[in-house]
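Bump. Still looking for Omega-amidase YafV structure tokens.
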Amino acid sequence: MSDLKVTLIQPNLHWENIEANLRMFDEKIDSIKERTEVVVLPEMFSTGFSMAPERLAQKMDGSAVQWMKQKAAEKNIILTGSLIIEEDGQYWNRLIWMQPNGVYGTYNKRHLFGFGGEHEHYQAGDKRLIASVKGWKVCLTVCYDLRFPVWSRNAITPETGEPAYDVLINVANWPERRSTPWKTLIHARAIENQCYAIGVNRVGNDGNDIYHSGDSSLIDPLGEIIYRKSHEEDVFTTTLERSRLEEVRSKFPFLKDADKFQVF
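Sorry for the wait, here they are.
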């Protein structure tokens, strides 16, 4: 298994303006000069964290998903982030894992942010998504999921004897007023699951005048901070080293001693 090139994009989103956000991400993705393989956008990247799905939701053939498909193909990348999706009269905060050939996976956010009323507007998902790229297994989560470690718990797969995944990605709109939990939890998820953990957040004020400091982060399997950016937009590309992951897991084989949890 070879190394994996990833790009984290931390933007200041245009509130409830799909077309403006797609144009902005066009520019940011086009600005990436080095080769990359996976590009990560934040939660509800086309709108901001809005509780108005009746006005903003699109179907899976809408402009935002079509843009993801076109951009992934154009740049030969995997593009991931979450969107407001309507399906059969229900609304979902849905993460999409879009491959360059147009094939995609989906993950509906499991833990809806009741404190902000998200559960009053959206349906909760009940299935994890572990995607694959170049032999790397990637567990995909959205924002509030980060507070619930059982949902993203890594474990040795009996059939293979290998961990269920190698990289945890969390896409978020996480306010600055709770930045300490955001930074602490993404750090903890990397250590306890012996994986690379990527947290991609937004910056700036949203339409409710809630400020986001970003603090997008990349943590290695031993808890070392590879990247963290606060208070400003950024596009960051780096390489996840397979040898580092294997070294940590071989030297400290903690996952084999983990408690058994059932994730439905």
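The mean pLDDT is 97.

Edit: fixed formatting.
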